[in-house]
Amino acid sequence: MKILGISGGRKDSNNDAMCKEALIAAKEMGAEIEFVRLLDLDIKPCTGCTACVNSLMTGKGNMCALKDDFDWLLDKMLDADGIIFANPIFCKGAPSAFLTIRDRFGPRMDRGNNVVATKIAEETGGKAPDPRILKDKVVSYIGIGGSDWVTEFQCDSGIQALTPMWKVINNEVFPWSTAIIVDDEKVSKVHEIGKNLAEAAKDIENASYKGEEGVCPHCHSRNFFLDRESTHAVCCLCGIEGEVKIVEGRVRFEFPEEQLSHAHDTLSGKFIHADDIKKTVETTMNLRKSEEYKKRLENYKNFITSIKPEK
């Protein structure tokens, strides 16, 4: 059993310390552990070039056009049974270093895409993506904030797990935690998170969420896109659509059972999304061939050019 700890904070910061506290608990449970600090790595932002999608869907494996430390980190993540992220909370949510990792997962790590790509490779004799991408995994997130501005963190984090369909065991925020290292109650909670993850990694198939219950009964998100004119709502994390209600003084999110097949963290939901993207790509490719599109694009290109700093 391998547990990888990833800190998104400064060296020897609260995030490093709490990531290591969770790893201490995992090691006590018999896990082999490793620790990585994101800020030690050279990881470039995703450019949206779609090279990864093209390689997947043409039987060429799973490739990225960017050359940096991401593939090294990805190999570490794929080799682990469980992963712990400890991140500082910036602007209410996850920091840019983590969001870059999340963006680089994108279509490349989407389980639905990799299931389809594996089938394409088998049928064409091409190169299949790394089979470890289709391996079940457990993950926990720890967010450490210096105030109560923390309301985006859990959703930011959960989206990263949604892509490869990893099971989230804990997704915890610690507001007002500048002094967390000497806060015994919070340190104990972080230790419990590490223990929960290690226990889940021993039996991933039967692992389940151990954190505080959220509003969405499916993914435990508290973030929703609300309809101003009705009680209709969409979960910002799993994408399930339903109704927000007040039942016995408490907020409830209720949805029809068929919505589960559309959830963004299910394979059926991912296949629906893949079909939607396929239609979008086909529309875009046809549009780019039209003279009207070429004319309008040329007008924008000629209107103004970007400025760059002098070297």
From TrEMBL:
Keywords in alphabetical order: Flavoprotein, FMN
Entry superkingdom: Bacteria
PANTHER family on file: IRON-SULFUR FLAVOPROTEIN MJ1083, NAD(P)H-DEPENDENT FMN-CONTAINING OXIDOREDUCTASE YWQN-RELATED
Flavoprotein keyword on record: yes
Protein name in UniProt: NAD(P)H-dependent oxidoreductase
The keyword Flavoprotein appears for this protein: yes
Pfam families reported for this sequence: FMN_red
Transmembrane feature ranges: none
Domain NADPH-dependent FMN reductase-like: 1-121
One term of GO molecular function: oxidoreductase activity
